[in-house]
Specification:
215 residues; mainly alpha; 66% helix; globular
Length: 215
């Protein structure tokens, strides 16, 4: 008797649809530096207003409810604490942007014509923010500006802090008194950027979620 054994052909496994994770919009290092910078700016601006009130440049003072430190000495101590955080965190942020190539990918190309085009679209309410991975020309210009503004803040702050030690830098900025005005105007520009930034976050809440979760 001949036995015939039948073997069924193996059933071909159908490929399962891959459940790919959402693409990372903001890497961890960027999110950490962003929130540390937010803390540093809050400390430096409010303590700086306390210092300003002790020797105003203009014919107004900031409300005490908006200042940090309680008095001149306290404001200076808080300002120095925020200064180190702002300086080292900002330097790390710039270095990582350059080394990783992010500064080129995210902020270039940047052209005056493109800025005017996107600014016009924004004023007409036609500028979309569908993909948080890509910045429009207005966003690119704003972020590049605030990077340079931060550098100006640090350099003018060094002159105000150690005018004698940074004498060359003091002369390049036009003297101690001019450096104070430069420092104040750079601070005002930073505050304006933060205010506009918060408005945009309120209009597009998903940008906040991506800065918290990375996706």
């Amino acid at each position: 008797m001949t036995l015939h054994t039948e073997f069924s052909a193996p059933i071909e496994q159908q490929p399962q649809p891959s459940k790919s994770k959402p693409e990372v919009v903001h890497p961890l290092w960027l999110r950490l530096t962003h929130w540390l910078n937010a803390l540093a700016v809050l400390i430096m601006v409010t303590s700086g207003w306390q210092i300003y009130n002790a020797s105003p440049l203009f014919d107004f003072e900031f409300s005490r409810s908006l200042t940090l430190g309680g008095w001149l000495g306290g404001g200076i101590q808080w300002h120095f604490a925020g200064m180190w955080l702002f300086g080292f965190n900002g330097a790390f942020y710039l270095l990582m942007n350059i080394v990783s190539g992010r500064i080129k990918r995210k902020f270039w190309p940047l052209t005056p014509r493109g800025i005017l085009r996107d600014l016009g679209a924004a004023l007409r309410g036609k500028l979309t923010h569908a993909d948080p991975r890509h910045y429009n020309m207005v966003q690119r210009a704003a972020y590049v500006f605030v990077m340079f503004d931060g550098i100006v803040l640090v350099l003018s702050g060094l002159v105000v802090w150690k005018s004698v030690q940074f004498s060359l830098l003091r002369e390049l900025l036009g003297g101690y008194d001019t450096a104070r005005y430069v420092h104040f105007l750079a601070m005002a520009s930073l505050v304006g950027f933060v205010a506009l930034h918060l408005v945009m976050v309120a209009l597009v809440p998903k940008t906040l979620l991506s800065m918290l979760r990375g996706r």
